[in-house]
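Predict structure. Chain length: 149.
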Amino acid sequence: MSKVGEKIKTVILEESKDFGIFLVGEKFAPGGILLQYFMDSEGPLDMKEMTRFARHINRLSEEMDLGERKFTLEISSPGASRTLSDIRQLPKHIGKTLLILTEEGEVEGEFKSLDAEILKLEKKIFRSVNSKKIHHRNNSYKLVRGQGN
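Prediction complete.
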């Protein structure tokens, strides 16, 4: 990560607390000309608040000594297709279908609850026994920290 990217990340981590949001990822173009930071919140993400935060960070970055090199700074939500990377993102997804990676492979099911770091999914297993039976199975998975996006 570039020194400029690291300096801005430090400011984002500190300032985001006042806006009720948190950093879930960053991405930097080769050469450091594009710095992207992805933010989320525990509840629904308020886009007006995100815009206010982005403007705030842009103002602070203009006041910082970041050298003469030009770069583009983007602060946005992670988007619906981005992998969840922070446990604080999970509760607002209860009731949705999640695809998770376990030591045994991928598991897809309806997200039922989160208790401490135990994620409970209801997996739907379809069996073609007389073409009529549908089985539901509840499973619990311990969350482990992995590489974020």
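Summary: Confidence is low (pLDDT under 50) at residues 127-136.
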